[in-house]
Amino acid sequence: MLAMNTPIKVLICRSNPIAPDPRVEKEAQSLLKAGYQTHLLGWDRTGALPVYEETAWGIIERLPIKAEYARGILNFFPLLRWQFGLLVWLLRHSDEFALLHACDFDTILPALFCARLKKKKLIYDIFDFYADHLRNTPGFVKALIRRVDLWAIGRADGLILVDESRIEQIAGAKPRRLAVIYNTPQDLWNAAQAQPGSAASSIRVAYVGLLQYERGLLELIEVMQRHPDWQLDLAGFGGDEAAIQQSAAANPNIRWHGRVPYSQALELSRQANVLVALYDPVIPNHRYASPNKIFEAMMLGKPVIVARGTNMDRIVEDAQCGLVVNYGAADELDDALARLERDAELREKLGRAARQAYEQHYSWAVMEARLTALYQQVISADE
After folding, report:
1. Confidence of residue 284 (pLDDT cuts 50, 70, 90)
2. What is the 3-state secondary structure (H, E, C) of the chain?
3. Which structural domains are found in the chain, ordered by start?
4. Which terminus of the chain, N or C, has less C-beta within 10 A?
């Protein structure tokens, strides 16, 4: 059992550079607020970011191991180098932390090995179930990863999922302790309301997130081409970034922002009057998705358009805070945006319902309490 007389040192491991990573940053802030000392370790695939960075919520260190995104099995050897580099770092610095917080499958095995060898507590935080997240990867490889992942879940001291629906996705696993912590933002409502938003008589759409074809972005760009008077703010990074940027570049009503800090991402969403989260339901992870874009829309009081069959449709329909369309149906998306353009009262109604859902069910204050309660359970356990 760990003692709380002095701040417990927590190391959060993430296979991205945390530049930004809103969920990781929120968790670190909440842990710091609860009296923990946080340190973060990330993977810089570009090798261009600072190796060491001090922030208000913890020190970030990055391992510069070159790799590209979304290459499936072609990333196998860079992934092995990351795993080895992470393991070596953990073993060398094991006296600098008491509790490991491993994010997703691509950090859990080195973290689990270190935790058991060095007698550390371990929390496994699954943002996306890895086997269902892979692109361009043979089925037998995914099946093997799934079996190993379910085994690892049962060996961690605590498990975090981002949605209740994902309990079904990990069927067969036996987590010791479980907390569901939605990927919802901190409450910036008062600050957002202090600044004027976009004009109510026009449609300004925002998408900030992973830039992949499976996010409905080509259909969104097609719709924007049909309506040069509408505006789209497009930001993020990902495996299909170059192609999506090229497609957007021909449209003067699409503003390309690239990778942006989280504060700017929220500002782009605040200035919009409609947000979109169009995930392809064919992808298993999308059928269990509850991404931060949904909850950012709720926090900001904005209507959101989502794809049917992605779990997001259930959340949006239950809260009555947006519209649902079939994935890939550009005409349906066009009709939904046109409806919101001409009906300002509907936009306001959906926005009010969104904010109410955030305050009552999805605020970060609620999630923060779940996070610290899980930590306390893990720390207090004797095994």
Report:
1. confident
2. CCCCCCCCEEEEEECCCCCCCHHHHHHHHHHHHCCCEEEEEEEECCCCCCCEEEECCEEEEEEECCCCCCCHHHHHHHHHHHHHHHHHHHHHCHHHCCEEEEECHHHHHHHHHHHHHHCCEEEEEECCCHHHHCCCCCHHHHHHHHHHHHHHHHHCCEEEECCCCHHHHCCCCCCCCEEECCCCCCCCHHHHHCCCCCCCCCCEEEEEEECCHHHCHHHHHHHHHHCCCCEEEEEEECCCHHHHHHHHHCCCCEEEEECCCHHHHHHHHHHCCEEEECCCCCCHHHHCCCCHHHHHHHHHCCCEEEECCCCHHHHHHHHCCEEEECCCCHHHHHHHHHHHHHCHHHHHHHHHHHHHHHHHHHCHHHHHHHHHHHHHHHHHCCC
3. 9-184+363-380 (3.40.50.2000), 189-362 (3.40.50.2000)
4. C
**For residue 36, what are its two tokens?**
């923990």
152, 174, 221, 222, 258 from 228: Cα distances, Å: 50, 52, 11, 11, 21
Give the mean pLDDT of the chain: 91
Decide if pLDDT at 335 tops 70: yes
